[in-house]
Amino acid sequence: MEEKVRLKGDRQGLRLYLDEEAPFEEILAGLERQLRRGEGFFRGSSLMVDVGNRELNREEVLALAALLEKWGVELRALGTDNRQSRGAIREAGLRSVPSSAAPAAPAEAPQRPSASADALFITRTVRSGQSFRHHGAVTVVGDVNPGAEVIAGGDVVVWGRLRGFVHAGAIGDEQAIVCALELSPTQLRIAGLVSRPPEEAPPSTGPEVAHIEGGRIVVEPWDTFRRG
User: 202 versus 205: which is more confidently predicted?
Assistant: First the structure.
């Protein structure tokens, strides 16, 4: 994410932190870029937006809510420590909650986050009709059945049969991968690319990895894959 717009998960769900000092127009522009880049992840989600001690007026609150609505995102509440902002949020008919500490920005951006950072572990089969959406990597110890979906900002690893819908790198990470002991998804996406299995797909021959190479999604055996 851009430094002015940072996404973090907590026990209440997804929380989007907005920079307190940048001009509001820059915040909106940066937020829209992130929503566009990660449309597959954000559309249909519910977010808490944390503005810290930033002073907002009613028009700015409504503009922020309208932008999220445009991209299919439900605004659960706005986190703030500013009295004027709380009043503006109430005037706009929205809910305000106390702000929480924003995650510290790294002094130097890493080449790639650790695979275990902000990871979600699901230790059961994901059944038809169930949907899991997480801003980091997702590991499923079990199957992902047809009609189920897993949407992740990072990698997706399935220690079982992957036969549902999966979207890795959904916030725009083209280095994300999808691994499974049996890789037979109804649809597989990585970042902005989509891959569907052929109608007469050969049976799985063992664990496989899907990743982006040369502008397209390719699949290769797990034991020969080396992340570049």
Answer: 205
49/62 Cα distance (integer angstroms): 13
Q: Are residues 85 and 177 in the same domain?
A: no
| Claim to verify: residue 94 and residue 164 sit in the same structural domain | no
DSSP letters of 54-113? ----HHHHHHHHHHHHHTT-EEEEEEE--HHHHHHHHHTT--EEE--PPPPPPSS--SS-
Assess whether 124 and 217 both reside in one domain. yes
How confident is the model over 70-88, as pLDDT tens digits?
A: 999 999 999 999 999 999 9
Give the CA dihedral 141, 147, 151, 157, nearest 10 degrees: 30
Whether 192 maps to a domain, the answer reads: yes
Q: What is the pTM of this model?
A: 0.74
- Between strands 193-195 and 216-221, the pairing is unpaired
Q: Is residue 158 part of a domain?
A: yes
Q: What CA–CA distance (Å, rounded) separates 99 from 58?
A: 18
3-state secondary structure of 16: strand
Q: Which of 66, 98, 130 lies at the terminal end of a domain, its last residue?
A: 98
Structural domain for 87, as ranges: 5-98
